[in-house]
């Protein structure tokens, strides 16, 4: 007898009834579509789901059905049209808003970095006062890079100009786009907007324990929007991303950071930038599924403990 649907994240039930769910998975198969060589993040949600079954097997020894306890369901994909911001952004915002209105936490699978902006718009309507914790090889606070009002490189510029977040309360980690002569480069643009940025050089100097301590102190008591761009990992571990950048974090570092954040109040999870056409042997899809599983653990750690 079939016990779980085919094609959902971790084999959780598919459905639209959010009444008993703490965590709702939704795919956002959207990318801007204008990169000259690496278009493919629109296929990311299906790819991560396909590689999530093996990750889910690791729950077998826990002695509890954590996914069932949390009522995790997969609500499918948002109806988007890649490259069409006018159609897609309102649809993404509406889907995430629907989840938040039901009292659940969204776990979205992108999609390129552009999918974050409409999610921030939705969260602003439901949980004002949240802060963004953004892991990425890039700040996504670029200006003048592309001749388009909205793109996957300027999400966090719009987030400030629209008043969606307080940049001083948010944190960007993992950036490798500093100038080779030590000038501030694009990181300087983000800092000029008011963001705090921890570059890879700075992270390497401080190490995982110090970074985790810094994050925990900064976000204690604040609802957190966790935005995890898969290119924060080094391309040797995650080759199938939109814009790979050498010198990123290792898998062990990434998982240690995520596990060090248990106990913070997470309002939304956004795992994005998996590009299946560039993913050797499904490495990035599998790793993204593991990141998504770590998000499940993060949400579980938010629950009141018995006794």
UniProtKB/TrEMBL annotation:
Family per record: Belongs to the arginase family.
Gene3D superfamilies: Ureohydrolase domain
Protein name: Agmatinase
GO MF, one example: metal ion binding
Record keywords: Hydrolase, Metal-binding
Organism field: Nonomuraea fuscirosea
Stored PROSITE patterns: ARGINASE_2
Example GO BP: putrescine biosynthetic process from arginine, via agmatine
Signal peptide: none
């Amino acid at each position: 007898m079939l016990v779980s649907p085919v094609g959902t994240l971790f084999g959780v039930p598919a459905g639209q009834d959010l009444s008993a769910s703490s965590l709702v998975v939704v795919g956002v198969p959207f990318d801007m579509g204008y990169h000259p060589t690496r278009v493919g993040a629109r296929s990311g949600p299906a790819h991560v789901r396909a590689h999530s079954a093996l990750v889910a097997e690791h729950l077998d020894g826990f002695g509890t059905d954590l996914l069932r306890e949390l009522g995790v369901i997969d609500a499918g994909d948002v109806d988007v049209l890649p490259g069409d911001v006018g159609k897609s952004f309102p649809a993404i915002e509406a889907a995430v808003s629907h989840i938040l209105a039901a009292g659940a936490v969204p776990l979205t699978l992108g999609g390129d970095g552009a999918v974050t902006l409409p999610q921030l718009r939705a969260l602003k309507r439901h949980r004002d006062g949240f802060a963004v914790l953004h892991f990425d090889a890039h700040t996504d606070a670029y200006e003048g890079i592309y001749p388009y009002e909205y793109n996957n490189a300027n999400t966090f510029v719009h987030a400030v100009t629209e008043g969606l977040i307080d940049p001083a309360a948010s944190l960007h980690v993992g950036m490798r786009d500093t100038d080779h002569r030590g000038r501030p480069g694009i990181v300087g643009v983000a800092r000029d907007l008011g963001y705090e940025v921890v570059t890879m050089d700075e992270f390497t100097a401080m190490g995982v324990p110090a970074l985790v301590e810094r994050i925990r102190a900064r976000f204690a008591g604040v609802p957190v929007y966790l935005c995890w761009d898969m290119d924060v990992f080094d391309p040797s571990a995650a080759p199938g991303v939109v814009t790979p950048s050498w010198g990123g974090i290792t898998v062990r570092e990434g998982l240690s950071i995520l596990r060090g954040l248990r106990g913070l109040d997470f309002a939304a999870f956004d795992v994005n930038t998996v590009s299946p056409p560039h993913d050797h042997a499904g490495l990035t899809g599998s790793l993204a599924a593991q990141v998504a599983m770590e998000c499940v653990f993060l949400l579980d750690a938010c629950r009141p403990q018995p006794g």
